[in-house]
Amino acid sequence: TLDLLHGRLPEGPDLVAWPEDDRQIAAVFEHARATGATLVPYGAGSGVCGGARGRPGTVVLDLKRLDRIGPLDETTR
Predict the structure, then answer these.
(1) CA-based diameter of the chain, in Å?
(2) What average pLDDT score do residues 41-63 get?
């Protein structure tokens, strides 16, 4: 927001992913590993401090579409 206020276009991540299941999460991890990108998790927060925004060389993993919890392992939780 401050960049925009001062007339600067902020740099963004290389990719933003919205996975919906564990298979898609695995694919995002594999992409990041193959390209050397840093993963930046983004939950439900506003990201007002800019930490979840990502920058060049990052992949933002937006978790909002993960809307359920699967079976739990009762031994390890």
Answers:
(1) 54
(2) 80
